[in-house]
Design goal:
The complex is a heterodimer of chains A (370) and B (101). With 370 residues, chain A is of the alpha/beta class. Helices cover 29% and strands 26% of the residues of chain A. In chain A, the strands form four sheets. In chain A, strands 1, 2, 8, 9, 10, 11, 17 and 18 form an eight-stranded mixed β-sheet that branches. Chain A has a four-stranded mixed β-sheet with strand order 5-6-4-13. The longest helix of chain A is centred in the first third of the chain and has 25 residues. Chain B has a single domain, classed as Ubiquitin-like (UB roll) (Roll), CATH 3.10.20.440. The longest helix of chain B has 7 residues. In chain B, strands 1, 2, 3, 4, 5, 6 and 7 form a seven-stranded mixed β-sheet that branches. Chain B is mainly beta. In chain B, 7% of the residues lie in helices and 32% in strands. Classes of the chains: A alpha/beta (370), B mainly beta (101).
């Protein structure tokens, strides 16, 4: 609460900040989680809800290892979170399918699987031909030539996940402040001070996990988080009886029966708007996969902003000018949530970054002068 | 349960809900006709099978879903009542076989 000095301030109440806060709190830290509120650009509330590992980090082994560590931690993480909060976050791991519509696409998935093996990725990726797919998913359309499959891919309700993390933090004695957008950060008398809409909040350590809002806050404590928005639109259908038990890279059926169809990649500045042409393209792609979706009604469509770094990989770093101040950002707040909660949060509570993320400093973006 | 504001307008036609005849007035949508006839259980939720009734009456909440002439998940509050409609409760999520040829 304002007035007290916390062990750790977490700036940003999205999935990344909430996961770090929950994990740090479980590790014994007195945590204050500062959340701007529903006016914020909330990737946490707009995303697709996939935990997608096949192909993630191909060509970037450290990113692949960190992502796969998260993938393997999800079972433990989900069980702990549900057990502590009693909230069913809807985590299911039926395995994921990326459907292919040409031999070239199948070759691409084959290369992903081979590169993953070469890099020592701890994940099984199978190539299914059309007959294999029809055995498991008879509803696919005639243009599907095959798919890649991984048993590690899963999905979750991002809304329940966010709520569970924030409730779990508070149940464990942590502080969650809504309506606490941060205007400025500073160091003062050995402490960090966040000037919020609800007054100053003081802490011995601080982590900036403020999504797109982090770009302006980070330099105030000697950090760098050069992120930009990338819009994705997602279509939601009426509820229909379950017929797709797996998760697809662009289409999944929720526990309640709705289909989620995603997702576009657009440069639209900070606009979270939608347009019919994009929705129609997304729907056409889903119908190509499952022709029976053609007669299913769309009930909602929304746009949301991904938090993109220059190379698409996360940033984790500790400030060199202000030790004890950390930055954390990525566009995979769902997939990496388990690692943020069980590895990153407890480490930051101890004032260090995990060895696994040592290569994700922002100075990789600096041009080297020779 | 619900009482009409205009007491005197005549009947414009009849539909059936779960095989029970329901008279409606000119201008009624399906949801209004059913509610005026004292019917409150429009559907059973696909999540927990709980009974549900219309809430928003303007096409937003999807609580009023019914099956009309064999088509499931129809929004009763958006569809004008017509004579001869065969309406049934929506039980759980829509079965895509409802429109198979």
């Amino acid at each position: 609460m304002p007035g007290a000095t916390h062990d750790l301030i977490v700036v940003g109440g999205g999935l990344i900040g909430s996961a770090i806060a929950w994990g740090a709190g479980r590790a014994g830290a007195d945590v204050a989680l500062l959340d701007e509120g529903d006016v914020a650009h909330r990737a946490a509330r707009g995303n697709f809800g996939l935990i997608w590992l096949q192909g993630k980090g191909v060509g970037a082994p450290a990113y692949m290892r960190w992502s796969l560590q998260a993938g393997h931690l999800w079972e433990t993480f989900a069980a702990a979170l549900v057990d502590e909060t009693g909230i069913d976050i809807g985590w299911r791991r039926p395995g994921g399918l990326q459907f292919c519509f040409s031999d070239e696409e199948m070759d691409g998935r084959r290369r992903v699987a081979e590169q993953t093996r070469t890099d020592g990725g701890d994940i099984a990726i199978e190539l299914w031909d059309r007959a294999d797919v029809l055995d498991r998913v008879p509803e696919v359309g005639p243009e599907v030539v095959g798919a890649s499959y991984s048993p590690l891919d899963s999905h979750v309700s991002p809304l329940y996940l966010l709520r569970a993390l924030q409730e779990g933090l508070q149940a464990g004695g942590g502080t969650y402040l809504s309506g606490a957008g941060v205007a400025a950060l500073r160091a003062e008398a050995g402490l960090f001070v966040a000037e919020t809409a609800r007054g100053p909040v003081r802490g011995r350590r601080i982590v900036i996990a403020a999504g797109l809002g982090a770009a302006d806050l980070a330099p105030q404590l000697g950090l760098s988080i050069p992120v930009r928005p990338e819009r994705g639109q997602i279509v939601v259908t009426e509820r229909v009886k379950p017929f797709f038990a797996y998760v697809g890279s662009g289409v999944r059926q929720t526990a309640e029966g709705s289909f989620l169809i995603g997702s576009s990649h657009e440069e639209a500045g900070f606009s979270e708007g939608t347009d019919v042409a994009t929705a129609a393209r997304l729907c056409a792609s889903a119908v190509r996969t499952f022709p029976r979706l053609a007669e299913v009604n769309v009930v909602r469509l929304w746009g949301s902003l991904r938090v993109m770094t220059p190379d698409g990989k996360p940033i984790y770093e500790e400030s060199q000018t202000h030790p004890g101040a950390f930055a954390a950002t990525c566009h995979s707040g769902v997939t990496l949530c388990s690692a943020h909660a069980l590895v990153l949060g407890p480490a930051i509570a101890d004032g260090v970054l995990p060895e696994a993320v040592a290569s994700f400093r922002s100075d990789r973006f600096h041009v080297q002068a020779h | 349960m619900f009482r009409r504001i205009e007491a005197s307008a005549g009947t414009a036609g009849t539909l059936t809900f779960e095989e029970r005849p329901v008279a409606f007035r000119a201008g009624d949508n399906v949801a209004a006709a059913l509610l005026a006839a004292g019917i409150a259980r429009f559907r059973d939720s696909p999540v927990d099978a709980a009974p549900r009734a219309p809430y928003c009456m303007m096409g937003v909440c999807f609580e009023c879903l019914v099956e009309i002439d064999g088509r499931q998940n129809q929004q009763a509050c958006l569809i004008p009542a017509r004579t001869g409609m065969v309406i049934r409760r929506q039980r759980g999520a829509r079965d895509l076989a409802d429109r198979a040829p």
